[in-house]
Amino acid sequence: MALVDFMKRAYYAAVGPPTTVKKRDDAIRIGLLGASKIAPLAVITPAKSHSEVIVAAVAARDRKRARQYAKKHNIPIVHSTYQDILDDPSIDAVYIALPNSLHYEWALRSVQAGKHVLLEKPSCSNAEEARRLFEHPLVTAPDAPVLLEAFHYQFHPAWQTFLSLVHHLPWGGTVEHVYSQQFLPNGYLDVDDIRFQYALSGGCLMDLATYPLSCVRQVLGRREHLNVVEARHRPLPVAADGSEVEPQIDVEIKATYITDSEKTAKIRGDLLYGGGFSFLPASWSHSLPRFKWPMTEALSGEILVDGQDDGQDDGSSHFVQRKVTLWNHLLPTIYHRIDICDRHFLRRGEELVKTWDEVQYIKAYNWPEGDVRSQTYQEWWTTWRCQLEEFVNRIKGRAGSGVWIDGEESIAQMEAIDETRISNMNSINVMKLEDTAAYQLPFPEWDNLQPITPRLDFDRVKANSTLTFRPKLYSIMPTQPQTFPTAFFLCTEV
Ligand SMILES: NC(=O)c1ccc[n+]([C@@H]2O[C@H](COP(=O)([O-])OP(=O)(O)OC[C@H]3O[C@@H](n4cnc5c(N)ncnc54)[C@H](OP(=O)(O)O)[C@@H]3O)[C@@H](O)[C@H]2O)c1
Question: Which end of the chain is less enclosed by CB atoms within 10 A, N or C?
């Protein structure tokens, strides 16, 4: 039976349910900016089972490719440019799955065009862009279009069940340590993938590792600021001739954090995960692809449950420490498991008298029975289908499941990425500098930074080039009012 359920979930998730739903007259018409790889999983298939969503248009840089994509996915309108989608009055909302370096610009353009926006993660190239986007008056206005960073995993009942388990420990206390990991097997991505291009704001921390970072932040709560203790990266391998291809690209990131209240967190992500087969010679097995589950694990502090006065006859004290592990926060619909392990300790003074474990395993393909949300949600809904449900609920002004990612959270996530990146790589993801002549230092208090200006060597900086300086981010704003973009870059601190 479990196998049948598994196959049904996997089939419905990948292909869609066997029956197509009738679309309502007031369905939200979504336009796709880019004929991206992720859209079928993230929007096109989920929309098939949603009566209030129609994927109505697509635009790609190459119109022929857009036409082929539209034909394959039954998308009625093909536009020549992304802007044409924004100018199309029949489109209500857009899905932006462009390279990260284009998220800020196209999200802001979309909001200016009055479209609701489902914006791929990470929301922007850096925190400065994120603040400008999510704090923009057009985004914060009461009747503003909906803008959602697509951290889809958060919308699934498995993640929410895991979170409620770690946030409501039966004996009180809080999580003291959290770890999260995510890997892609070596060879899964093409060598020219957007993730391996620095000018497109690629890299592991900006892509795969945004998940573990987001997961640990969710577990510790948004009030806990993550201070980076250590961050290490593995760069993109050098080319066959020994030259560095994209020296600023990290393919693996490991980072350790401590919060102000001394809770700790660790993350690990790898875009080219391979090797480690002890039974094979390391010299040729290191590049063999390897699989590891996405996983998030939260460990509570030790809690005293029975003291000497009210508990054990032999004068010992009873402590419990809970570890909750979610296996596969990324694709929980296919398979996941939540392990709850309670480690009990009996201690008499300094002496450990006895220890034992109690373990439970939980699955949450839907909200708990009796929860009204379980009547709408289906076991075969993917994280993306759950996300689409809540995106639509928000646009329609309905309460929905209660799960949401607001602008403050998206900004905090980008700040955590920036801080990790600065402490590790002494650089940050930058935007293109469009018109060098039009920029000046914006704030009076930045006067003391004037000496850096000659170092930027504006005369020699070509328009549309990408600049990286170390190690602090400054933003340079256009002197003339213009829509886009502000340039952000790093300068050596003086
Ligand atoms: N939520 C998730 O689970 C998930 C999973 C994967 C990716 N993502 C995110 O989704 C976004 C897209 O990822 P993807 O894997 O779908 O990427 P992709 O298909 O390789 O690229 C997405 C689109 O970017 C456009 N593009 C515009 N300028 C480009 C340039 N200079 N070079 C290359 N492409 C350019 C292309 O549009 P045209 O069609 O116009 O050529 C392409 O269709 C990224 O932000 C990524 O982090 C999210």
Answer: N
Write out pLDDT tens, residues 205-246: 999 999 999 999 999 998 899 999 989 899 888 776 767 678
pTM of the model: 0.87
Atom nearest to 152 CA in ligand 1: 1
- Say how far apart CA 328 and CA 314 lie, in whole Å: 43
Mutation probe of ligand 1 site: the residue of 98, 207, 211 with most atoms within 8 A of C-beta: 98
Atom of ligand 1 nearest to the CA of 207: 47
For residues 98-124, average pLDDT: 96
Centroid of ligand 1 to alpha carbon of 60 (angstroms): 11
Give the mean pLDDT of 469-481: 36
Ligand 1 atom 10: residue of nearest CA: 97
Percent of the chain with pLDDT over 70: 81
Q: Which pair of tokens denotes residue 65?
A: 């490719």
Task: Name all domains of the chain by residue range, CATH numbers in brackets.
Answer: 20-152+388-405 (3.40.50.720), 154-364 (3.30.360.10)
Which ligand 1 atom sits nearest the alpha carbon of residue 38? 16
Q: Side chain identity at 30, as an amino acid letter?
A: I
If you average pLDDT over every residue of the chain, what do you get?
A: 84
Closest CA to 277 of 296, 291, 260: 291
Question: What separation in Å is there between the alpha carbon of 41 and the centre of ligand 1?
Answer: 13
Task: Give the binding-site residues of ligand 1, using a 6 Å CB cut-off.
Answer: 34-38, 42, 60-62, 97-100, 102, 120-121, 150, 152, 194, 200, 207
103 phi/psi in degrees, rounded to 5: -60, -50
Which mutation among 152, 194, 385 tests ligand 1's pocket best, with the greatest number of atoms within 8 A of CB?
194
Q: How far does residue 421's CA lie from ligand 1's centre (Å)?
A: 22
